[in-house]
Amino acid sequence: MTTLLSRLEPGARHRAADHAPPVPRRRRVLRGPASDPSWARPALLVLLAMTAVLYTWNLTASGYGNEFYAAAVQAGTQSWKAWLFGSLDSGNAITVDKPPAALWVATAFARVLGFSSFSVLLPQALMGVAAVGLLHATVKRVSGPAAGLVAGAALALTPVAVLMFRFNNPDALLVLLMVAAAYCVTRATEKASGTWLALAGVAIGFAFLTKMMQGFLVLPAFALVYLVAAPTSVGKRLAHLAGALAAVIAAAGWYIALVELWPASSRPYIGGSTTNSLLELALGYNGLGRILGGEGNGGGGGGTGFGGSTGLFRMFGSAFGSEVSWLLPAALVGLVAGLWLTRRAPRTDRTRAALLLWGGWLLVTALVFSFMSGTTHPYYAVALAPAIAALVGIAGRELWRGRGSATARHWLAGMVAVTAVWSYVLLARDADYLPWLKFVVVAVGLVVTTVLVVGFATTRRAAVVLVAASVLTAGLGTAAYAVTTSSVAHGGSIPTSGPSSAGGTGPGAGGSTQGDPLSALLATTTTRWAAAVSGSQTAAGLEIAGGRAVIAIGGWSGTDDAPTLAQFQAAVANGEITYYVAGGGRGGGGLGGGSTGTEIATWVQENFTASTVGNYTVYDLTA
Hints:
mainly alpha, 2 domains, five-stranded mixed sheet, disordered N terminus, Glycosyl transferase, transmembrane helix, LipidA_mod_glycosyltrf_83, YkcA/B-like_C
């Protein structure tokens, strides 16, 4: 029967399938579509299962990860208003400096499972598995199941992806939403579907509500591929793009309107803004400020924690290189090869459309990251990982299909060669890390490159061995770093991947103060806020440890105008704050921190008596 169906025309094959006995649901899940090879669905299930293990194994070793966001999750479990606005504290004094979409997801888990390290980090891991599955599905639609598996595995084993899908920064949800949008654009481009394109716009709108304008970096590629390759008239293509833009605005704009129209006196201050405005935060501190620098947005030319020096090769440097660039040279070679070989294809060619989509995503995002002068951290590079993985899968598969041509073989050999050489360079940067590995990668890569150039692999068995060796060359270095990353605990605000990562850097890396005398003291309070302290990092640690709301005077950097001295005095007069905490030295702690913080600290010193609790100086504001 199988032989007969294989000889039928596509229409006749579907008619024959319509009269076939129904396949049990469990078998359909395990086997997949009848049109797929028998190995395709089992291989996908194995990939997803191994990804889940990699992302969840010993997950709670990192504690609460980034305590800044973990404290906001805790606050969201204690106050619905804090959940809605992404408040750092359940008393709703100030928000985190990002929109709250990622917090909405994490808080939902924490409300169901209870607030804990596991409930805070589990959503990130699940979003990582979902992103791998969606990337596989997207690439498979164009280049088949083998390419989809390669792309999914490449994303799963990117070190910075392992890092971010085991950590509670907003980047996990951002990547998932952007991959979902790419899937929708791919579906839209196949049949010129305005509906699928609008769904892509919705996904990008929520990406904006996750990490603001970074979610928009993929829009030029999405618009280009639909405008070029959708099989309909120019007028309809432009109309569909306009509808998708409206979907982006609606999906992001409803929340901005809600915040802007909500009376400022009954909601928390928008952390990171200068005017208590979410729109200003999007355009300023989290928008142009990240690209151009400015007040509160240093970073360009800083140390590795801030991305290193700006320039064209920044993604290959010491800050970003080992995070994401293992397969970046291969992706660039594959992109050039694919576009060259499809240069005479019809306008609607699906392979070229896919190359434009993922290539545009990669180039625009990489160039922005390379030259942005504001705050830049190496883990931002996770946004490049899906595009790199997709290009390697698509280009590698298409070149392998055309291996009968010397041109295709030589391009493929180039992908293998640059991967082997670059893996050697990255591994050599840490002389103490598996010193033998770089030689294995180069040796195998040299053999594979030679075979491809000469064209020795003429039999099926030889081809299978060659494919296995190619995968080994491409994946060995990045896989080793990925597994090592999953075995290391991470904390603080600037986590890094790889063997040199011993917990992350940046403010808040010291861990919560749970169990110390101050935490026990704060836990006994019954006022709206247990305490006030300068800076969000210190406030977050105290909140997690004591389980009570703490005002973060001045926000993340201590420079936000919240609360003002008058607001603080009014809260004290109303008996809403029990203690003012100074000292401790945990990133933003101590007296002052900004003009507002200095005014409040001075007023407290002049009007209240200090006592020592553990390593902190504490003022009882109810005395």
